[in-house]
């Protein structure tokens, strides 16, 4: 017998309580507002709607578009032994069985007597009649609302009308859920795109800042080199004439004046040497260097009045240019000794060395270190310290807090250039719980070693 919808079918609808049905459908309409997922909707329809409408069995199918199969996603009756479990969940191809034909046609199908249906697909319990109603979204079949009954001719016009109404309400809610999911997905994509744009913008600004800084330093270097060469020629003439004046055997105030001029010329010559060194990026030849030996050699270059207390023995060897490192450390030690003496502190310059590992994303503040192993050499003075604004400028070329005759303002900028060229870095911070500052040099344990 071909299943078909017959208005005169006599089913349980004649005895259905219309008021109870309306109450259930009204409650379903209210409940739909709170349902947020398709899974919750399927189970609510099976248990709280179809079950309360007097149907003894219900299975909700979802159409799996890629495979073209109807998949059981919720159930009422013997198919649902507990919780949200489905006993022997079936997958029915489009066009097969009562539900498959309903999905293929997109129209309800009522089978009055399953004993006469050759393509009936048995499920959990024997049945004699079945009704299948399509769930439509945007005119497309997305699922099936199916019910079976152990008696033949169990479904009539009333049951068809009720299940068609429930299926229509379910399809409308599925449309809203899919729109909400799509909106949420679009919002997440928008947030992700915004984050990527912000990250890219930040990265671009950082690169632009680095490029600007590199160009600024290059311009300063060229200007410094040209000025140093020109001034060196003038200073050579001045020094030569001062030597002639001293050779003439001047005495008294004249000799004193020439001597002061000679001291100023020597300071100028030292300034020229610093400027020439800064103006060119020297070629470094890194090799294995013991940090304790490096500190000892740099400390021996200090005046006898400067005191240094060093603890740098038990650390790994570093991979740096020894001569350039000695000059850099000497500059830092000199600044620390002068700052301590200027503050009137009777204390040595403290030097400590520590093995450190920098993880990815864990570069210390004020540095651009890549992940890897380093030795951090800390040089602490007992001076008056530096204001935050001053500390931010100490590595800038020609910045100095000392009189020009005593300092060129290039020492710490050269230290910065050396450490970065050596794949390390340098930073300055205020001492914890005391006066003065600590300058920290990160020296690579081995060239290019990363974690």
Summarize, please.
This protein has helices at residues 18-32, 38-50, 97-105, 157-247, 253-279, 291-300, 322-342, 388-391, 411-421; strands at residues 58-64, 69-76, 91-93, 109-111, 129-137, 140-149, 287-289, 308-311, 318-320, 349-358, 372-380, 425-430, 437-444. It has 451 residues and is α+β, with helices and mostly antiparallel strands. The two termini are 75 Å apart.
Description:
By secondary structure, the chain is of the alpha+beta class. The chain has 2 domains: 12-184, 2-Layer Sandwich (Beta-Lactamase); 284-444, 2-Layer Sandwich (Heat Shock Protein 90). It contains 9 helices and 13 strands. The protein has helices spanning 18-32, 38-50, 97-105, 157-247, 253-279, 291-300, 322-342, 388-391, 411-421; strands at residues 58-64, 69-76, 91-93, 109-111, 129-137, 140-149, 287-289, 308-311, 318-320, 349-358, 372-380, 425-430, 437-444. The chain has a 6-stranded antiparallel beta sheet. Helix 4 packs antiparallel against helix 5 (253-279), helix 6 (291-300) packs across helix 7 (322-342) and helix 7 packs antiparallel against helix 9. The chain is rod-shaped. The relative contact order is 0.07. Residues 1-15 have low confidence and may be disordered.
């Amino acid at each position: 017998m071909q299943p078909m919808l017959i208005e005169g079918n006599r089913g349980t609808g004649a005895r259905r309580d219309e008021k109870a049905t309306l109450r259930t459908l009204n409650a379903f309409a209210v409940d739909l507002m709170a349902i947020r997922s398709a899974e919750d909707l399927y189970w609510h329809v099976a248990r709280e709607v179809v079950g309360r409408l007097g149907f003894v069995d219900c299975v909700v199918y979802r159409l799996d578009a890629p495979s073209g199969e109807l998949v059981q996603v919720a159930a009422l009756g013997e198919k649902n032994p507990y919780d949200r479990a489905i006993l022997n969940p079936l997958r029915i191809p489009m066009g097969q069985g009562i539900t498959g034909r309903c999905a293929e046609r997109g129209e309800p199908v009522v089978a009055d007597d399953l004993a006469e249906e050759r393509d009936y697909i048995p499920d959990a319990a024997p049945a004699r009649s079945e009704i299948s109603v399509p769930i439509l979204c945007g005119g497309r079949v997305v699922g099936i609302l199916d019910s079976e009954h152990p008696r033949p001719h169990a479904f009539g016009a009333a049951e068809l009308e009720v299940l068609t109404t429930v299926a229509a309400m379910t399809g409308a809610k599925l449309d809203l859920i899919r729109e909400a999911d799509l909106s949420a997905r679009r919002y997440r994509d928008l947030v992700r795109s915004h984050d990527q744009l912000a990250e890219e913008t930040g990265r671009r600004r950082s690169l632009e800042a680095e490029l600007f800084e590199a160009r600024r330093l290059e311009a300063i270097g060229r200007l410094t080199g040209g000025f140093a060469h020109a001034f060196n020629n003038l200073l050579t003439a001045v020094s030569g004439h001062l030597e002639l004046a001293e050779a003439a055997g001047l005495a008294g105030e004249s000799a004193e004046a020439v001597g002061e001029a000679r001291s100023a010329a020597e300071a100028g010559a030292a300034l020229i040497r610093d400027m020439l060194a800064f103006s060119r990026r020297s070629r470094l030849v890194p090799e294995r260097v013991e940090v304790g030996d490096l500190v000892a050699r740099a400390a021996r270059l200090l005046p006898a009045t400067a005191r240094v207390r060093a603890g740098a023995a038990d650390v790994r060897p570093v991979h740096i240019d020894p001569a350039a490192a000695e000059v850099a450390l000497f500059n830092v030690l000199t600044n620390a000794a002068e700052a301590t003496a200027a503050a009137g502190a009777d204390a040595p310059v403290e030097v400590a060395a520590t093995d450190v590992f920098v993880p990815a994303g864990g570069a210390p503040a004020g540095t651009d270190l890549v992940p890897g192993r380093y030795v951090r050499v800390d040089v602490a003075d007992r001076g008056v310290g530096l204001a935050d604004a001053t500390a931010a400028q100490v590595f800038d070329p020609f910045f100095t807090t000392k009189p020009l005759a005593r300092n060129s303002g290039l020492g710490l900028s050269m230290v910065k250039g050396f450490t970065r060229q050596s794949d390390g870095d340098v930073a300055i911070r205020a001492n914890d719980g005391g006066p003065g500052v600590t300058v920290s040099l990160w020296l690579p344990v081995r060239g290019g070693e990363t974690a």
